[in-house]
Amino acid sequence: MAAQVKRQLNDGPKIRKEKEIVGKMIRIYCMKKHRQKVLCEECQELNEYASTRLSLCQFGEAKTACAKCPIHCYKRDYRQKIKEVMRFSGPWMLLYHPVESIRHIPLPGKLRKK
Ligand SMILES: [Zn+2]
């Protein structure tokens, strides 16, 4: 490798999967809440931000669900936004992507399968 990078970006299967999931959730949110077919600018930005955070997550492949992570690496604004997205899209994820959603979404107890 020519240039010395400060830090290797995460690109393991787990990180990639998480990016995919967060992308889906943001898409659902934007589609239903902002009534957009393609991600609006705001959601696009959030998606990129979330993806960058995952690339830089210091736990890499060993990471837990972001909601359970002791390190809050999101800036405050984005944290608020992603929280809202998760809350909104969580139930939809159960419908659309049930397997993927189980681990990630902080659902109210009665909705959680196991
Ligand atoms: Zn949007």
- What class would the helix/strand composition place it in? mainly alpha
Helix residue percentage: 55-70%
Associated small molecules: zinc ion
Compute the number of strand runs: 0
Query: How is the biggest beta sheet arranged?
Result: none
Query: Whole-number average pLDDT?
Result: 84
- Structural domains: how many: 1
Termini distance?
Answer: 45 Å
Which descriptor suits the 3D outline? Answer: globular
Which stretches are poorly predicted, pLDDT < 50 over at least 5 residues?
none
Strand content: under 5%
Summary tags:
114 residues, mainly alpha, globular, binds zinc ion
In short:
The protein is mainly α and 114 residues long.
Question: Which secondary structure elements does this structure contain, and how are they paired or packed?
Answer:
Elements: H1 13-33, H2 41-56, H3 76-96, H4 98-104
Bound molecules: zinc ion.
Zinc ion binds at residues 30, 34, 36, 40, 42-43.
